[in-house]
Amino acid sequence: MDQTIVFFIFTMLFTLLFGFTFYLMIQNLVGVPFVPSSAKKLLKLLQDLELDTEDSLFLDIGSGDGRIVSAASTLSFREAHGFETNPFLLAYSKLVSIGEKKSKFFWQDMNQANYDDYDVVYAYLTAGALAKLEPLLTERERPLTIITHSFKFPNLEPHSTFGKYYLYRVA
Length: 171
Description:
The chain is an alpha/beta fold. The protein has helices at residues 3-30, 39-49, 67-72, 87-96, 127-138, and strands at residues 57-61, 79-84, 103-107, 120-123, 144-149, 160-162, 165-170.
């Protein structure tokens, strides 16, 4: 084989290996793996709840590839935001949402964020991450609707359950 082809193959393999290793390091630092949510199921749940969303802000904590934020932006929310710490997923989200006027993505650590402006929060996070998030979402004066997927908050009782989704109303 030509040395140029061998060098190219070696470079591509090294880049993939390094990129994947970097990705795993980020996931270990954050502690929350990327597992995509079904935008279709959550969208149906949000529609069935008949929330008063016209002037509301929606937030997806750990927004991953942005599918939930994009789906929520099609509803009557004023805007739909996503917080993400994985730089690859954040870049992808921003790229695929070009042209969506109500979708916005931010590089934001959930433990350092201000949640005061949000009315509906979605979080597909591990039990450990939800335990850290719980006091940040419950210590506020405005009402808040929280939807979690697969995992519950340790000290809050869900208002209702829809399959693997848990709905909380915090006053």
